[in-house]
Protein 1
Amino acid sequence: MQALYAHSLKPFESVTQAQHDLIFTVKNCYTLFLWLFSILPEVAFYRANKLEDLKGKNNPTPEDLHPNLKFVDNEVIRQIEENVTLKKLFPQHHINWSEDTDFIVNLFHTIEELDEYQAYMNNQNGDYEEDKKLVLTIIEKVFATNDLMRWFFGEKDPNWIDDYEEALSMLYMNISDFKQKKGDNCKIATLFKNTRDDEQFCKQLFLKTLEHDAEYEEIIESKLQNWELDRIIGMDMLLMKMAICELTEFPEIPVKVTLNEYIDLAKLYSSDKSKVFINGVLDRTIVELREQGRLNKTGRGLFQN
């Protein structure tokens, strides 16, 4: 969607270059996912060093000499730090926090203010599930809401402003699947489930939507009721064209999946009324395509769904 929108603003750009930019941005989102994955081990490392420093100060308190190490020893954070796959991926994607220590310090202070963090630290009878629950809570209540984090990654790469929610969702789901018994071999989500097929899908959806642009516009115009074509929001038009492309050109994708996904995209990227408008147009389009025999879905149940 973003690549098609960007191309519409640069119509003289070659399709080949636009396609290259598309794959780059998809891979770039995965890099953001890895940056997010790397944060908590850095935060725990900072906290461990700080606690060690407190032991050496003048007149240390009993708490300084015998600190609460529960967060520092969080097993899920340690699984991230020691994960075999991440140890390979981090250097490959040039992930390094050596110049961003102030960000890590500020982030820890935000985390320690959470009520859930305080309750976690005060509970002496924790277990692996409690460790995981804290990590997921930090993602949900700090990573997802902290303006500093969004600004920080937006400064690193402006494209990450739009990718942030997707990368964060990937992180949350990935850590949710961690298992204690897996140790340092917990599975890390890959960029594509099937690199060859998924990358090809991205390219084909992009190219075929461009190729049939005029045809899809005519289909949409014929479904409008008391609505002029030039009054349609550009993003709504783009989403409907992509949906029609999926419906007619990708037999392996169920109709219902396409409909739901593009309505969800409308909720995120278009106006408040767009989801209802797009749903109505696509519903009428699906009926017509089915009557014309153009919903050539393969696989059991795909035609009905």
Protein 2
Amino acid sequence: MINIVLFEPEIPMNTGNIMRTCAGTDVKLHLIKPLGFSLDEKSVKRSGANYIDKCNYTVYENFEDFTSKNVGTYYFLTRYGNKSYTEFDYSNKDENIYFIFGKESTGIPLEILKPYFDTCLRIPTNNKIRALNVSNAVAIVTFEALRQQEFDGLDFYDSFKGKNHILED
């Protein structure tokens, strides 16, 4: 199972966008406090485009609370990562995979990252920016893992209008 973890997210619009991505891909979202906003804020709902109620998510008090309740492979998206996200094998559908993203302003604390250095990864960029927007990074990594799992359970057609709706008009 693919999981997205947001460590102390600060910007409600980013979390709303990520909730929408998780809802549309059946990926579970884990939110680690403190959150920089309330989950009932208008901005979270607007960026989630009213799909928040379809997002499977859990909120944790801190990182220790999260790790005590979730067993699997942890991958940390960080500027300190020396490997690309494409260098890892996420194809095992029975494995619990957790992609962990840090807060927008400072990322994930080094004391958390150090024991997991081998699974610290990054999305390659040039030297003009420090990092991509977190909601974009979540989408990139989520869809790479889903691609490796052959998009299991996802539709390859417009599920609202039907597979051949364009031919029927």
